[in-house]
Here is the input.
Amino acid sequence: MSVKNLLVEAYKQTSYQLVGHGHRTIQMLTDALKDYDDLEESDMYGTGKIIEQFQAKLKECLGKEAAVFFPSGTMAQQIAMRIWCDKTGLKKVAYHPLCHLEIHEEEGLKKLHQIDSVLLANETRIIQLEDIENMEEEVSCILLELPQREIGGELPDYQTLEAISSYCRDKEIKLHLDGARLFEILPYYQKSAKEVCALFDSVYVSFYKGIGGIAGAILAGDEDFIQESIVWKRRHGGDLISLYPYIISADYYFTKRLHKMNQYYEEAKELAKLYNECEAIQTRPLEPVSNMFHVHVAIPKDQLELILITIYKETGIGLTRNMKATSENSCSFEVSIGDQFALVPKTEIKNLFQRLNMKLKEVTP
Amino acid sequence: MSVKNLLVEAYKQTSYQLVGHGHRTIQMLTDALKDYDDLEESDMYGTGKIIEQFQAKLKECLGKEAAVFFPSGTMAQQIAMRIWCDKTGLKKVAYHPLCHLEIHEEEGLKKLHQIDSVLLANETRIIQLEDIENMEEEVSCILLELPQREIGGELPDYQTLEAISSYCRDKEIKLHLDGARLFEILPYYQKSAKEVCALFDSVYVSFYKGIGGIAGAILAGDEDFIQESIVWKRRHGGDLISLYPYIISADYYFTKRLHKMNQYYEEAKELAKLYNECEAIQTRPLEPVSNMFHVHVAIPKDQLELILITIYKETGIGLTRNMKATSENSCSFEVSIGDQFALVPKTEIKNLFQRLNMKLKEVTP
Here is the structure.
């Protein structure tokens, strides 16, 4: 068994975990189904009470003319880009180099839609207004991911967002929000979803990040845009005869967790502080702006894994199941706060970080 | 309320229905979940016990090197076409004019994959070897849909299938099976799924037609083909973090109904005979070759709907909820036999068809 598997195995054996909502088991579905009568009618190709009510709820929440449920964000966002490109006749969009479309979708945007990308900012920082003003090529659409997940979940300040939105409107560039973690950033901005979405022409939100559903996404925008997206959803093979297993769970966990985003945010700040007090550790952002952050550790990955495995066994508390090497002598992992953090006794967390700090001091030159 | 809605409403009020497996309610899902422990781990991006075991089972059943679960057949089949076209460098495939890809997918194949289609045979009959031999254009792949649903579920004889397969191999044309209803035709051919699939390079099967699951499909073929299809699945946005709600229900109803396909086939023949004994009615095929057929009635749609509504009310038995006008003076509807036919008392079916025949005689010139 590789060291990585040992970390996962050790994590699975822990009684408490500081991240996430818990293991992804089918209980996520059976819990969500408990409120429903067995005789409730299935949705059929985008029609029916279950899908229409949820779409109406999210349309209201996001303050857009229309909203449609998609099986995945990958599908929803490629389609949003395609519609905006077709509208202007220019098959080019701009986004961050670590955008989901650029690094996690096997070039679907290019291979299925023949849309080229212009990369804004770079892998070390988020997009600022200047990056857009200085863009040398014309694009149909700019996609902003809030927060920028792959660099730890950083956010521009709200004035920057407003300035970018206003600039794009002036220049007739469509602005799309990758809001996979939109609900998670509202406490930091102290804005409603509707206020943030008003800055964008189209918006995608996910139901299995902070919300913790099984899968699925909502795409929202004006009526024309959404009607077109429904045609593209069929073309992509996403207009399943029934999507209710995802919708029921999305709705259930949305209701259950939307009001907890502030708690997750406060807990993320608390946990990041504990990490930053340790030798050789720095979080990114230093102070989180959502429920997530990255932990960067200046020791080799294998060494940190062995330390964590020991700590998991000694304390019964898991910190992460994943880890990646960022260089020969450094590594990092992602933290997303969910329901589980609050379940762990504070004194045990304190004890854990004392142990971690001690072990890191032993191995740091 | 329109006449069409009245038909649907009257159908919903019936105690028995001669078609299908029953109303699509969320009980389809809760029943399937009953055999599972709540702590069963979710599949994750194509990995995990639930998805891997089901893929292995279907790979065996279809006799192919590899199989992968897709959320929809639309996605699976476009991807199959794309892979075969990319292999030969020729973006053209051939299929029937009433093929799902041609009439139900909003031109996804052309708009997403830039693949052109050559239409074989015509809307009144199925594809024969001669249609392929006489094809004037070169294509990468030929898609055969067995049975050809939109003309009532007709089938070529098995020798024709073998001849087409052999011809395509000689000419190095890939042959793909749209087997949305593959299991439903095995009793007529008296062949195993493996035997039929051996004639094809790639195969798609569905789990919500005769099987009666919630949604989902399997694509099967050789190892290389399936590995490529997994990359395309991600590009299409079909590589959902978890697909288990569909897989669990597909597996449950597959196990429950696979052995009943012969029963459905025999019942379809029995029911078609009853229709054909009525004035102004002819089924297509005259004798079904699967669990499905179309009923063609030589009176106007509105008139037949009124007759059926009366009959549903008098007998408590529903025949169909859908109906389409085929001309000003004729209409048709589709019949697919499932679990429900066997639940209806035979004497009541006989009584129903006597009434139907009487009413049709009254209105037929």
Summary: Residues 280 and 298 of chain A are 5 Å apart (CA to CA).
